[in-house]
Amino acid sequence: MHVGKGKIFAGLIVIAAVVFGLVYYGINLTSDLGKTAGQISEEDAAERLTKLYGDIRVTEADPIKGQIDLDPVDVGSALPSIDKFDISVDHTTSSYVEIFSSTEKSGTGTDGWLNEVAEAFNNAGIEVDGSPVSVRIRNIASGTAADYIKSGKYVPDAYTPSNALWGDMVAAEGVKVEEITDRLVGNVAGIVTDEDKYNELIEKYGALNLKTVTDAIAANELAMGYTDPFASSTGLNFLVTALMTFDSADMLGDQAVAGFERFQANVPFVASTTLQMRDAAKSGMLDAFVLEYQTFVNTADLQSGYVFTPFGVRHDSPLYALGDLPQTKRDIIQAFADFVRQEDNQALGTKNGFNGMDDYKAEVAPADPGLLSAAQKLWKEKKDVNKPIAAVFVADVSGSMNGEPLNRLKESLLTGQKYLGRDNSIGFVSYSSDVTIDLPIAKYDTNQQSMFVGAVSSLQADGGTATFDGIVVAMKMLQDARAEDPSIRPLIFVLSDGETNEGHSLDEIRSLIETYQVPIYTIGYNANIQALQSISSINEAASINADTDDVVYKIGNLLNVQM
Q1: Are the beta carbons of 320 and 160 closer than 8 angstroms?
Q2: For 167-190, b where at least 16 C-beta lie within 10 A, e where not — what string?
Q3: CA angle, corner 368, sides to 315 and 154, nearest 5?
Q4: Which residues have CB under 8 Å from 406's CB, separation 6+?
Q5: Phi, psi at residue 493, to the nearest 5°?
Q6: Is CATH 3.40.50.410 the right assignment for the domain spanning 31-72+388-562?
């Protein structure tokens, strides 16, 4: 679809809000976006950083080695209670089925199509075996839903993700999956490209498809972002299709891996949500980004100046029955599928932006279901192969963190550290009224991992809260590391309740954050989330509001994407 130019994304805030609430991680923006009004010169920044650092009481802790747990991450144990995810439509009869539904169709507004259809179904007096039946819809992102199902922590009666890749992946993990229908409503994933860049690429390559897009990215001719393939349907689709474009016969072979590394080296970032992709595009750093067609057509500010190019498998919301269901439940699921396909319900879907681009067919053959999880692991291993990361974790150990908040902080870091890639470099800082360097930055080998575990395990809470002093120390550590290796990509993760009452202020360090372009991800523990957002928003990083029930899962997801 080819459309005219405009400014970006005011309407997408509403469309993406549900997605942001259900998918839990960050975005990494490390490209040079140019100086903003608050930036200062590198020389002035270095002088200011040295001065601020000199004002802080900093101690270095003796290293403490901890016991490393070499077992793989247990996703099921980290998942929060399923009650964290809203029931968007509840059942109205004693005989019913529960369906996990992807968020673009079980949210609100134009994203609430399936809810309207489900309510109509529940009011229609439909019977199975002489008894009235109904459905319960749970609004949950496709990737998160797959985690619940694969882990066995919570398995609904039925599952309707955005695309069939998730159904294939769940089945490959040994879950009994029966496809009831391959389509509830039509949709596709696509690349949204700035019109000027689109015309430039057409002139050079003659066509725009995933092959030419990945070639252009590898040649550093296109700045494009995509979404996390562990959580996002569009991101998973993009990854799998790209790998098959590099080598259709073996998407995990040497040729495919080499192709992935070439283009990934020039991808500015991977986002986790549509909302974060909106923020990145708003900054002006992107020529293109991935999006579903239904979101695209419902975003007024994208209807001028952008071109939508579909790719990969279709996003037609297949419906699956899960496990060994009684025949009555299976019949209810089938009755619901038949009801959804009725003409008036499909017309409602069209009104909400679905059922467009029905003539599009996948440009590559279906991927081997058994290789999908391996493709995700390949992405994790190779996504930063040419971009070494140095990250400092900054932990609040003030008195207000005492008790459950600190216990959950420790648990989330001890679980999350399993996601830290071995090629990364890691440091650790804790703060209360003063700041302690618990672990200087070093390559995350077995020795560093042991000392990271030891440092986290030994944390104790007491004193005031000098959050910005902790950030200053982390920035000084990262700048020293960059002096030794200018190629590193710096990150800071701040874990706090957000209540700063001592030390330097945000105003005093804002210009440093802007000049050094260090993304600062903040994770709040029953926190003043607005205070933390003010830190993260400077360089478009994510701020996670994690209460004690779901912080382990959220931080695991964040680190899986960024590290």
Answers
A1: yes
A2: bbbbbbbebebeebbebbbbbbbb
A3: 65
A4: 397, 459, 460, 461
A5: -120, 120
A6: yes
Q: Which fold has domain 2-11+188-314+364-381?
A: D-Maltodextrin-Binding Protein; domain 2 (3.40.190)
User: Using only C-alpha atoms, what is the Rg of the chain?
Assistant: 24
Could you read off the pLDDT of 357-370 as tens digits, one per residue? 999 998 888 889 99
Q: Looking at residue 460, what is its pLDDT?
A: 94
Residue 123, phi-psi category: left (phi > 0), alpha (psi -120 to 50), beta (remainder):
alpha
pLDDT at 385 (0 to 100): 64
Q: From CA 232, how far away is CA 147, in angstroms rounded?
A: 12
Give the residues across from 320 on adjacent strands: 159, 179
Which single residue is written with the structure tokens 């009831």?
180
Token pair 């790998």: residue = 243
Q: What does 313-345 look like in DSSP terms, one character per residue?
A: EE----EEEESS--HHHHHHHHHHHHHHTSHHH
Chain-centroid distance of CA 167 in Å reads 20
The Cα–Cα gap between 431 and 409 comes to 14
Q: Tokens for 488, please give them.
A: 């590193």
Residue among 251, 263, 248, 249 at smallest CA distance from 215: 263
| Neighbour-count burial of 16, counting CB atoms closer than 10 A to its CB (0-12 exposed, 13-18 middle, 19+ buried) | buried
DSSP-derived 3-state class of residue 410: helix
Count of C-beta atoms within a 10 Å radius of residue 32? 7
Cβ(303)–Cβ(3) under 8 Å? yes
Collapsing DSSP states into helix, strand and coil, what is residue 20? helix
Enter the tokens of residue 177. Answer: 């999956």
Q: Determine contact, residues 228/236, Cβ cutoff 8 Å.
A: no
The whole-angstrom separation of Cα 226 and Cα 228 is: 7
Other C-beta atoms lying within 10 Å of the C-beta of residue 547: 15
Q: What is the pTM of this model?
A: 0.80
Name the residue ranges covered by the structural domains of the chain: 2-11+188-314+364-381, 31-72+388-562, 76-187+316-351
* Residue keyed to tokens 């957002």: 533
CATH match of 76-187+316-351 with 3.40.190.10: yes
Q: How far apart are CA 266 and CA 285, in angstroms?
A: 13
For the chain, the straight-line distance linking the first and the last C-alpha, in angstroms and rounded, comes to 36
Distances (CA, A) of 4 to 195, 223, 304, 355: 7, 20, 4, 22
Which residues, in sequence order, are CB contacts of 560 under 8 Å at separation 6+? 25, 228, 230, 380, 419
> pLDDT tens digits, residue range 295-350?
999 988 888 899 999 999 999 999 999 999 999 999 999 999 999 999 999 999 99
Q: How confident is the model at residue 276 (pLDDT cuts 50, 70, 90)?
A: low
Same fold, 31-72+388-562 and 76-187+316-351: no
